[in-house]
Amino acid sequence: MHPETRAALQKVSTATLCTALFKRGLRNQFIQDVRPLNPGLPNMVGEAFTLRYIPAREDRNGIAVFQDREHPQRQAVEQCPAGAVLVIDSRKDARAASAGGILVARLMQRGAAGVVTDGGLRDSPEIARYAMPAYHSRPSAPTNLTLHEAIEINGAIGCGDVAVFPGDVVVGDGEGVVVIPAHLADEVAAEASEMTVFEDFVQEQVMAGRSILGLYPPTDEASRDDFAAWRKARGR
Asked: Could you report the per-residue pLDDT of 181-191, keeping only the tens digit for each?
C-alpha cells in the first residue's frame, strides 16, 4: 500500500468508504456484526493477512495440537506482517474464541495493524486495553479448539459475509470494518478524502441551521460556491 493511501485512509470513516465503494458497484464490503473492542483508537488500516477456520472434529482438535509449532493459528500470528491486519474467518460462530489475549498481544508486539474476526475473542477485557485495534462479534471464553480448526493461512476467506482476499485493504473505525479490493485502494482513498472535506463543510452548515436541500448533494451553484470559499478559508 502506498504511504499516501494509508495516510488518507486513517482520516476517513468507514461510512464514507462504503459510499465510495457503492459508486463503483460494490455493495457488500462492510463486515457484518463485527464491532471494536477499543473504539477510542485511531483508524485501523492495513492489508489483509487471513486465517480460515473450519468446524472442529473431536479426533483432530485435542489440546495437544497446540504443541505443534506449525499449528496454523500460531503460524498466522507469527507470519502476519507488520502493518497488516489479521482477518479471521470463524464462520460467524462466536461460541468459541478465534484467539485470546496472548496471541493478540503477540500480534501487537510484532507490529500488526489490527485483528478482525467474525467470531469472538477471549480475554476481551484485556484486549480492550491494548493499543492495537481489535474487532469481533462478541466475547467468547471457550478455546477455539472447542469448535474451530485452523486450516489455512493467507487464502481467500469470508468474514462477516464479505469476501476477503490476501492484500485487500482493511479499514476499521468506531463503527466497524470495511474491505477495499486492493486494486481500488488508491482511488477510493483519494475520493473518500475529498468526500470527507465536503461532508465536514455540510455538517458545519447543517449544525448552523441550514437546510440539506440543494446542499447535500450540492445541486445549486450557491452551495458549490459556498463550499469553495469555506475550503479556501480553511486551507483544505
From this structure: 999 999 999 99
pLDDT tens figures, 179-236: 999 999 999 999 999 999 999 999 999 999 999 999 998 888 888 888 999 998 988 8
The pair phi, psi for residue 168, each rounded to 5°, is -55, 155
pTM confidence score: 0.94
Which stretches of the chain drop beneath a pLDDT of 70? none
- Enumerate the β-bridge partners of residue 157: 164
Closest CA to 120 of 154, 104, 144, 102: 144
Give the position of cell 505443534: 68
Phi, psi of 36 (to 5 degrees): -75, 140
User: How far is the CA of 214 from the CAs of 27, 196, 198, 217, 232, in angstroms?
Assistant: 26, 18, 14, 6, 21
Instruction: Tell me: cis bond preceding 217? Omega within 30 of 0 counts.
Output: yes
Q: In what order do the strands lie in the sheet with 120-121?
A: 97-99, 120-121, 138-139
SS3 of residue 14 by DSSP: helix
Query: What whole-number distance in Å separates Cα of residue 65 and Cα of residue 118?
Result: 23
